[in-house]
Specification:
The structure holds 3 protein chains of 3 kinds. Chain A is mostly helical. Chain A has 8 helices and no strands. The radius of gyration of chain A is 20 Å and the shape is globular. Chain B has one domain (about 40-255). In chain B, about 80% of the residues lie in helices and about 0% in strands. The chains are: A mainly alpha, B mainly alpha, C alpha/beta.
Chain lengths: ~240, ~260, ~210
């Protein structure tokens, strides 16, 4: 099997150019989806019978939480690819993902707290979902801390890749144990809308926001990736050609 | 089967039984004319124990730390035994967690510094088995003493004597898991100066399940109920750790040697 | 012994932005000794560690008996002994105990063998003292004792004569000659060439 296409794909100058071309294809649809989702969620959807207008923060909270997990998985997978097949670009992808994922996690926590205030009367409840999000934030911070602590880029890549894989294996375990812990103490859990039939006018904007956030993540990743590739390859000859062009 | 344990893609054994088969296969693979993996692991374990006993004074440190932490809580809260009894699970487990963390920094540090780790990587033996041996030595020197001290600390917090065997058991099992989880962070942070805070940041999130199940088991023991369910979960975590942690630690050590 | 050969093809290695190894290549057959010469920082230690398989080169391969060493690193490691810049000794153990563990992890070794090796390097009087009380030269001799206990086909030595007096340097020459006569191979990193005449020596110069 001819793998040359794969190696070409993984070469830094190619990735740099490709990322530039692909970014608008993700950025514009992302903007559209998010705007449409916000319009649908904030304006068009009817207020929830139980929570009134307060539930609308769900339209930012749920996609953020979902993305925080998705980005971690993406980070772990690309780190594993870089670790096993020694592909430098994969490590650059993982490095680019981390701050984005941490930001999504932080956004999920903040929106969760803002939602909590009108709903529970308190900004923080040790609800299993929020607690798991908090732990995920620490996992991200640990990953970024390890990267920052090791000076040699190659070694930092590989060490943090091991950490990312160990982390991704642990996330389900942590989530399970936190949920188990929470169920022992019968804390009120009102965070999610009941499973049976979220009415369509509420659901569609949510799905749009989810799609929009995903596209936004990819666009942001591509932009960061270009910067990451530039920084890593700054001594290489192809950089000079690109810069002078 | 070639010893490519450094590759994370290498099979994560599906069950503890499979893990045992992997270890014995690796051991048999290296039989004559060299030493077996088991023999090498035994020597690695003995070396660490012998070194620890040469510095006998330092052996007491985790225990002293644990005692100090236990002392902090009554001083900070109240001397009433009835209140302390409710807090005992938390006190014991936070003490065990922090005590275990404290000793983790030194799990690989000296060996990395003087070239012993490099020789382990070049010995032709399974680095995974050697990492397991070192982690086991760490548990024998830190976790087990903490587990033996836990009943005493529990007594001082007003826990009934009937609960003590259960407490010893769950702290013993839990510290096994903690040592294994901690070995990963310790291996990853090799060579980073003043890595104590980073090591804690890496290890604590991964140790949360141990804390949750262990504290629950201790709580049930204190109230005289059966602690079988959380103890089994603790045991599962320990077994998972035995299976996976030395692999990850070996990978991390190889990366630090590059 | 089957026809053993160490071959290195076009090794390139970067450390960050430094191009440390620039196309190193050589062939070493049985009984051959390779001297890697270069000033400090020229990449001697890096080359040795790449030969060991500890470092993964960006380009090029290390071949042992015609096969890429990465295919079966443990088997390759079982066939080599590496002594780095600093002897890997624990200061809280005696030389005898250190050797017991160092060699024992690789192969079973008895007390008589250890005694013989310690005597060979002149450690009869100080073999039972803690390593922390020994001088740098004495520690280096303990490392040489380990070499004497590892008659494996390939020896990789990083500046083996550091801290040794003339008697010690002769000891190194003796050990290397013995290794070559057995049909083994030696790769050693040195500042300048060995003064003694060891036969069959190839030089590899690493420009700084």
């Amino acid at each position: 099997m001819n793998w040359s296409w794969f190696h070409r794909l993984a070469s830094p100058p190619h990735v740099y150019a490709l990322a530039a071309r692909l970014t608008p294809w993700f950025a514009w649809p992302a903007a559209l989806c998010i705007l449409a989702g916000l319009w649908g969620g904030l304006v068009l959807a009817p207020p929830d019978y139980q929570q009134g207008d307060g539930f609308r923060i769900l339209y930012v909270h749920a996609p953020s939480a979902w993305m925080s997990l998705m980005v971690y998985v993406t980070m772990a997978v690309s780190a594993a690819v870089g670790l096993i097949w020694r592909i430098k670009v994969a490590h650059a992808v993982a490095a680019s993902c981390a701050p984005i994922g941490a930001s999504f996690t932080f956004a999920a926590l903040v929106t969760g707290a803002l939602w909590g205030q009108p709903m529970w009367g308190t900004y923080w409840e040790w609800d299993p979902r929020l607690t798991s999000e908090l732990v995920l934030l620490f996992l991200y911070l640990g990953y970024m801390g390890l990267r920052a602590g090791i000076e040699d880029t190659q070694r930092a890549d590989r060490a943090s890749a091991v950490l990312a894989v160990v982390g991704v294996v642990n996330v389900p375990i942590i989530h399970y144990s936190v949920t188990w812990w929470n169920s022992l103490h019968q804390a009120p859990s009102v965070m999610r809308l009941a499973k049976p039939a979220m009415p369509l006018p509420m659901l569609v904007p949510l799905l749009l926001m989810l799609l929009g956030f995903t596209l936004f993540f990819v666009a942001l990743l591509l932009v960061r990736l270009r910067g990451e590739v530039l920084a890593r390859e700054r001594a290489a000859s192809w950089i000079r050609e690109v810069v002078s062009a | 089967m070639n010893g490519r344990e450094g590759r994370v893609a290498e099979a994560f054994p599906a069950a503890p039984g499979a893990a045992l088969a992997v270890v014995t296969a690796a051991a048999a693979d290296r039989s004559a004319p060299g030493a077996t993996a088991l023999e090498a692991a035994r020597l690695a374990l003995l070396r660490d124990l012998q070194l620890a006993f040469r510095k006998r004074g330092q052996l007491v440190q985790p225990l002293a730390f644990f005692a100090m932490v236990t002392l902090l809580f009554p001083l900070a809260i109240s001397p009433e035994l009835s209140r302390l009894r409710e807090l005992a699970p938390a006190v014991l487990w936070i003490g065990a967690l922090l005590g275990s963390l404290l000793a983790l920094e030194f799990l690989f540090r000296d060996d990395a510094y003087d070239g012993t780790l490099e020789q382990y990587a070049l010995s032709g033996q399974s680095l995974t088995a050697l990492m397991f041996a070192k982690t086991f030595a760490h548990w024998l020197l830190t976790g087990l003493p903490l587990a033996l001290m836990a009943p005493l600390a529990a007594l001082s917090l007003g826990v009934a004597t009937t609960a003590l065997p259960g407490i010893l058991l769950c702290v013993a099992v839990g510290t096994v898991a903690l040592s294994l989880i901690g070995s990963i962070g310790a291996a990853l942070t090799l060579g980073i100066k003043r890595s104590g805070a980073l090591l804690s940041l890496l290890t604590l999130p991964l140790s949360l399940p141990v804390l949750i199940f262990g504290a629950r088991a201790t709580q049930l023991a204190v109230h005289g109920a059966s602690l079988l369910a959380p103890l089994e979960l603790l045991g599962a975590l320990a077994v998972l750790g035995i299976t996976l942690a030395p692999l990850a630690a070996a990978a991390a050590v190889r990366i630090s040697l590059e | 012994m089957p026809d053993q050969m160490l071959e290195v093809e076009n090794l390139h290695l970067w450390r960050g932005e430094r191009h440390v190894l620039r196309g190193a290549r050589f062939k070493l057959a049985r009984g051959g000794c390779l001297e890697v010469c270069g000033a400090n920082g020229s990449g001697k230690t890096t080359l040795l560690r790449t030969l060991c398989g500890l470092i993964y080169p960006e380009e090029g391969r290390v071949l042992w008996n015609g096969e890429n060493v990465r295919r079966d690193l443990p088997a390759f490691h079982a066939a080599l002994a590496y002594v780095g810049h600093e002897p890997p000794l624990k200061s809280d153990l005696t030389p005898r105990e250190n050797l017991h563990y160092w060699i024992g992890v690789r192969r079973p070794v008895g007390a008589a063998e250890l005694s013989a090796a310690l005597t060979r390097v002149g450690a009869q009087s100080w073999g039972e003292r803690l390593v922390r009380t020994l001088s740098a030269g004495q520690r280096r001799r303990v490392a040489l004792a380990a070499l004497a206990l590892l008659p494996v086909p390939l020896w990789l030595l990083d500046e083996p004569t550091t801290n040794l007096d003339s008697e010690g340097r002769e000891l190194v020459g003796d050990l290397i000659r013995g290794q070559l006569e057995r049909g083994g191979m030696v790769v050693e990193a040195v500042h300048q060439g060995l003064p003694e005449s060891v036969r069959n020596v190839t030089r590899l110069d690493l420009a700084a």
